[in-house]
Amino acid sequence: MEQILTLYHSTESRLTSSIVIDLVKRATGNRSIYGFAEFYEPLRARTGVLSQANALSEAAEAWVDVLEVFTYGTWKDYVGLGYRAPELNEAQITKLRQLTLVSLAGRSARLGFDEIVEATGVEVGQVEGLVVDAVYADLLDARVDTKEQAVVVARAVGRDANKERLAELGRVLGSWEGLAVGLIRETSQRV
Hints:
With about 190 residues, the chain is mainly alpha-helical. It folds into 3 domains: about 1-90, no CATH class; about 95-155, Arc Repressor Mutant, subunit A; about 160-190. The chain has helices at about 1-10, 15-30, 35-50, 60-70, 75-80, 90-105, 115-120, 125-135, 165-190, and strands spanning about 110, 140-145, 150-155. A 3-stranded antiparallel beta sheet has the order 1-3-2. The longest helix has 28 residues, at about 165-190. It is globular.
């Protein structure tokens, strides 16, 4: 990511549509980058200003939308872009599907093949390969249970969180805090 950020900062004052497209393609296609918020947030702010001044092409804006999907979203979010979505290359498709798998794994320790197929758009026969690739990319620790058609997740890396996800996490932590305080009160009354 450091190389992408360096390129971005060196061109920030003269950001053009072609530079935006090139930087986003480089970031999303890079095999070692899986977190994008530190690039996406300043780029979105800068391109928002350029968009208001009509300085960015529709294609560049579409690639910034794709970067947002890679940062916070899933395969379904990309598909939801519809006709505006630029075509991804095979490395980008694989990465977005892996990130989608990580999002699923962050919500449940046991994932059915059907759930993975629906979320990632892969065929049932490709689920095991997707999981193995994600494990080798160190995105998760999991084992595939082919007999049960499930993936058992031991660990998944965290994804970047947008404002909505942060609010959701705040509610979950607030609920957990209330439960913990209640347990402490109950325990201290018994002692």
